[in-house]
Design goal:
alpha+beta, 2 domains, 6 helices, 202 residues, Beta-Lactamase
Length: 202
């Protein structure tokens, strides 16, 4: 004779375990969807990044500037101006700050392209802001992008800086030993860019 009561309890226990597991999975899925929504759809999508790095940007030097020239596929030149002891733009030697600076600059590339469709000028001015960090951009006639990560420099000083660096870059293009859209290794170019930065961004 089959003991239906025992089998019923056994099946009930198994189904209860499956339901508990399914409920747990649904909770994880709901949490994941919520995070995805916040990070991708909500107006404050970068909230988590901003909170993560907020403590790193509270005591930043307002004179620090990270400047890069970006070609079609890769960075061509980079320099830090007015950096504090420690070698990282924004002060201190924390590698998180340097990673954040490059993250902000890299994230702004799409915004530079978007701004180029609505702004006929080569000087695109401010294209992005994250906490105290501001990204200003300049787009050359050949599509080479100049990006400056700073903490409140005036548009006029940045425009003057970009225009003079653009002139230096144009002269570099006339050098037969330099190939277009390749990393800039010229020490003379670096020296002149830093001289321009001291004049306008100090």
């Amino acid at each position: 004779m089959v003991n239906y009561g025992v089998n019923y309890n056994c099946y009930k226990s198994r189904w209860q375990s499956k339901l508990d597991f399914t409920g747990y999975c649904l909770q994880i899925l709901h949490f994941s969807i919520s995070i995805f929504f916040l990070m991708n759809k909500h107006p404050s999508a970068s909230l988590f990044h901003r909170l993560k790095y907020q403590s790193l940007t509270m005591s930043v030097s307002s004179s620090s500037v990270l400047f890069i020239i970006v070609g079609k596929n890769e960075p061509l030149y980079e320099a830090e101006f007015n950096k504090l002891p420690g070698g990282v733009v924004g002060g201190g030697s924390n590698s998180d700050m340097l990673r954040q600076s490059y993250f902000v600059l890299h994230s702004s590339l799409d915004l530079v392209e978007k701004a180029s469709w609505t702004n006929p000028s080569m000087n695109l001015k401010v294209v992005d802001k994250v906490n105290q960090q501001i990204v200003s951009a300049f787009l050359t006639a050949g599509g080479i992008r100049f990006l400056a990560l700073h903490y409140g420099k005036s548009d006029d000083s940045l425009k003057s800086f970009f225009m003079e660096v653009y002139e230096l870059y144009t002269k570099l293009l006339m050098n037969p030993f330099y190939s277009y859209d390749t990393p800039i290794l010229s020490k003379a170019f670096d020296k002149r860019v830093r001289h321009v930065a001291r004049r306008y961004l100090s």
